[in-house]
Amino acid sequence: MSTITSKKEVKTIWDIPLESLYSLVTDFYKKEKDTIVLDYEQKIRLLAFFKQEKLGPFSSDKDSDTGYFDVVGSHRRKAWISLRDMSNEEARQGLIKLLDAATPRLKDYALQRWREEQRQLEKENCQDQREEKITQSAPTPPKPVAMKSVLAPAALWCTPKAARDFISQISTSPDHRVEVGPGEALTIQVPTSTKASAIFWEFVTEKEDIGFGLRYQRSPGEGVATYPVDQLLPVTKRDCSEDLILGSHQYMTQGTYMLQFDNSHCTSCKIVYYKVFYQTSTPSQ
Questions:
Q1: Which CATH superfamily is domain 155-284 in?
Q2: Cα–Cα distance between 212 and 214 in angstroms, integer?
Q3: Is the alpha carbon torsion for 54, 59, 62, 65 positive or negative?
Q4: Residue (of 258, 209, 250, 202) closest to 229 by Cα position
């Protein structure tokens, strides 16, 4: 059976610091108190050490629950008072010494738990060091940058008095017809084709004019987060209820075209008929 005889020995006993050892001992007692054999005086003394360590020296305001006819409470109070000005560390020593004398299992439990905690701590420290080394050795990825694109100008022309013929040719296909509500704007996105080098478009309205513009955004590349959106043709009113409006653009990179139909200036709905196709060896829809 181990014994604790002085404050100096407690700080080094079992190679466990006093504060850590006290935590392990109280944890052991909570789990095993039903199997630890203590007589009445030892239980009273154990509680006195616990209160002294937690609350300090006795004072009546710290023990107001003990009544006049509470015999057990009176004994506990006297045991606490007898510790006088015992320090926090000395109270811990007293509690550990009392339980160590009562059960030989305490030392084995404390040593096992302490070693487990130290191994876990070493494991966590090693993991932190490995993660730090990996972070330090990992190359810093290049920051994505926005790039300016250089594009050829877009072409736009018209075929006079061709609107009715164009509508009669494609009016049966709902894919070539869109409605733009009053005060609204509509954008049709058209991706480029890897098998072509130019895009063509044609459009008319059933009645009245409509605003039209063309935008283009190049697809992101390696190390490039995004390219700016280029306004190839500004949104401008086009008289397209009688004339067929045509246009084309030569592209060198892959991206997305945005055909803009703007009816924000008008209070009536516009029906737009349009067609988009690419130029390969021969133009195809």
A1: GOLD domain (2.60.120.680)
A2: 7
A3: positive
A4: 258
C-alpha distances (whole Å) from 209 to each of 238, 245, 262 are: 5, 11, 10
Its pTM stands at 0.48
Mean pLDDT score of the chain, rounded to an integer?
A: 85
Question: What sections of 65-223 are H helices per DSSP?
Answer: 71-82, 88-102, 105-137, 163-170
Cβ neighbors of 181 (< 8 A, separation 6 or more) are 263, 269
Tens digit of each residue's pLDDT (9 = 90 or more) over 193-243: 988 889 999 999 998 899 999 999 988 876 677 888 999 999 999 999 999
CA 33 vs CA 15, 36, 50, 139, 260: distances in Å: 25, 5, 14, 57, 81
Residue-wise pLDDT tens digits, 121-141: 888 888 877 777 766 666 666
Closest of 278, 279, 277, 232 to residue 258, by C-alpha: 232
CA geometry: angle 171, 176, 181, nearest 5 deg: 95
CATH of 7-137, one of 1.20.80.10, 2.60.40.10, 3.50.4.10, 3.30.450.20: 1.20.80.10
* Of 9-13, 19-23, 272-276, minimum mean pLDDT range: 9-13
Q: Are 147 and 231 in contact (CB under 8 A)?
A: no
Domain boundaries, the chain: 7-137, 155-284
Residues 141-165 as b/e (b if ≥16 CB within 10 A, e otherwise) read: eeeeeeeeeebeebebebeeebbee
- Cα dist. 115→2, 4, 16, 127, 129 in Å? 19, 21, 10, 18, 21
